[in-house]
Amino acid sequence: MPCDHYSLQVPESKFEDVVAFLLTSLKHIGFKEFYRPIPTCVGLGDGRPYLWIQAVPEGDGLGEALEILLSKHHTHMAFTAETHEQVQEFHTAALKAGGKDNGAPGLRPQFGPNYYAAFVKDPACGINFEVICRAEAS
């Protein structure tokens, strides 16, 4: 059964940066903000909100610990693309938005046939975002 939605917690001081990075990097596949019920929680997606970003206050040390956890323990999230071109567009847009290359667009046969992906770490928390296309090249 597919995942319906996912919640990602980030330090409050990095919240808007992570949201802006995702909106900029994934805009070309229709990714947008759908719902912000409170200033520190936002629902993002391409047809409906399925990725919820929540800010964690940093005053009690939890936000700082969360930032270390996100970057040091390889938090990873993958988005599906329909074409190899969309994967390449993500990589280009994410790097322009300040992301750090963590794997240029290309085939990854070790993960399966037609596994074409790119990986970029966001500049705020170091979260490893991936866009993958499993279709054959056009």
From TrEMBL:
SUPFAM superfamilies: Glyoxalase/Bleomycin resistance protein/Dihydroxybiphenyl dioxygenase. It comes from the Eukaryota. This is VOC domain-containing protein. It comes from Mollisia scopiformis.
